[in-house]
Each structure stands twice: as structure tokens, then as C-alpha cells.
Design a protein that fits this description.
The protein has 9 helices and 8 strands. The longest helix is centred in the N-terminal third of the chain and has 17 residues, at 64-80. It has 2 domains: 2-14 and 86-215, Rossmann fold; 16-80. Helices cover 43% and strands 13% of the residues. The chain has helices at 16-29, 42-45, 49-59, 64-80, 92-101, 114-123, 147-155, 168-177, 208-215, and strands at residues 2-6, 13-14, 87-88, 105-109, 133-134, 160-165, 181-184, 200-202. It catalyses: 2-phosphoglycolate + H2O = glycolate + phosphate. It comes from Vannielia litorea. InterPro entries: HAD-like_hydrolase_sf, HAD-like_sf, HAD-SF_hydro_IA, HAD_sf, PGP-like_dom2.
Length: 218
């Protein structure tokens, strides 16, 4: 079965404000104040918790030890406030429904810890739309290793597919898996993702069913 595998943060949902808030909670607890801006630093948010902590601590003159010490606190705060500001991108679930109706399997492959990804997708009311969800800790490896992608396809009942994402990590995952990559242009990087040379760009979810049909044509 043809399969469309989605990244989560920055692809299906804009989670940046809740992620930034979790990082800022760590900085505030140290008496440093809110070091990250929810808009200007959104790009870093989609690169993970440690990336946000590294950026903020770097601005405060702190280093790797503080990043690792604060990471559990970030996860705790984020888990408790996971859907305060998070929203699905316009048309995301309509596209997923259209793909399912056309006979595609759909799944999620994210570098968010699996438990948090499960919680978020259930809070958003969309978990049951996906045949599988693979998180950062589901397997011994994470993206850009291709194993999580392959697991996302297999567990959804698929045999071959494409990856929809928003960062270099997704591009490198697709390249390692030898499959087409589609990068969205509505994230913080905008059309800057074109420099990553994906097989296709996605400006709006409305276009995804037709695009998937072209990329997965027999």
C-alpha cells in the first residue's frame, strides 16, 4: 500500500509557541528571564528541546552541562502545557482524510518523544487518523536514520511511500531511505527549504493528494 509519512512539529502542527514556552520556563527557573522569542526563535523550536536550550543558554553565557540539566525540566513543563498554543496547519487534516479516502496509508514519524507525540495528537483529536506513530524513542535510532521512517511505513501497513517534512533532518531521512521528500513552505524557513533540494515543495495542504499521486505513480 502506498504510504504518506508526516513529520509532526512544523509540518502537521505549529507547536513552536508551546515549545518556546517550555524552554523559557527553564531559563526563568534559573533567574535568567525569557531568553527565547516565540516568533523570532520558532525556527529553533522545530529543531528540538536541546537546540532551544543551547540557544538560550548560549545567550546567557552558559554551556552544555546546563542544557543537559534543564532538559528533563523542559520535557516536564512541555508535557503539562503541550497544547496551550499549538494548532494544526490549515488544511492538514482535510489532506489526510483525502489521502485515506484515496486508499493511502498515513502515519507520523517525528523526533518528538513518542509519549509526548501520542499525547499531543490525542489532545488535538487526530491520533486515530494515522495508522502508526513513531517517535524519537520508539526505536534505538531517530531521524535522520531511516529506520524510524521504514517503521512508520510498515506499522501503517504500507510498502512504499514519501516523507512530508519541514527541515534538513527530514530531507536527510528521505535521502537515506531512498524515497521522495516533500518539504512544506509554510514553516519558519518559508521557501528557504528549497535550498535542501527536495523532490517537491508544498505551499498548501490542499495540493498534497495530487502531489502524492505524482510522486507515487506506478
Amino acid at each position: 500500500m502506498k504510504t504518506v509519512v508526516f513529520d509532526l512539529d512544523g509540518t502537521l502542527a505549529d507547536t513552536s509557541k508551546d515549545l518556546i514556552a517550555a524552554a523559557n520556563a527553564c531559563f526563568v527557573a534559573r533567574g535568567l528571564g525569557a531568553l527565547l522569542d516565540p516568533v523570532a526563535d520558532a525556527r529553533t523550536a522545530f529543531r528540538g528541546g536541546r537546540a532551544m536550550l543551547t540557544l538560550g543558554h548560549g545567550r546567557a553565557g552558559l554551556g552544555v552541562a546546563e542544557v543537559e540539566a534543564d532538559y528533563p525540566l523542559l520535557l516536564e513543563h512541555y508535557g503539562a502545557h503541550i497544547d496551550v498554543h499549538t494548532v494544526l496547519y490549515p488544511g492538514a487534516m482535510e489532506a489526510v482524510e483525502a489521502l485515506r479516502g484515496a486508499g493511502y496509508a498515513v502515519s507520523i514519524c517525528t523526533n518528538k518523544p513518542e509519549g509526548l507525540a501520542e499525547t499531543l495528537t490525542r489532545r488535538l483529536g487526530v491520533r486515530d487518523m494515522f495508522g502508526a506513530l513513531i517517535g524519537a524513542d520508539t526505536l534505538p535510532t531517530r531521524k535522520p536514520d531511516p529506520a524510524p521512517y521504514f517503521a512508520a511505513v510498515e506499522r501503517a501497513g504500507g510498502t512504499r511511500g514519501i516523507l512530508i517534512g519541514d527541515t534538513e533532518t527530514d530531507r536527510n531521512t528521505a535521502r537515506a531511505a531512498g524515497i521522495p521528500c516533500v518539504l512544506v513552505t509554510f514553516g519558519p524557513d518559508g521557501r528557504g527549504v528549497e535550498a535542501l533540494e527536495p523532490e517537491a515543495l508544498l505551499d498548501r495542504f490542499e495540493d498534497l493528494p495530487e502531489l502524492a499521486g505524482r510522486l507515487l505513480a506506478d
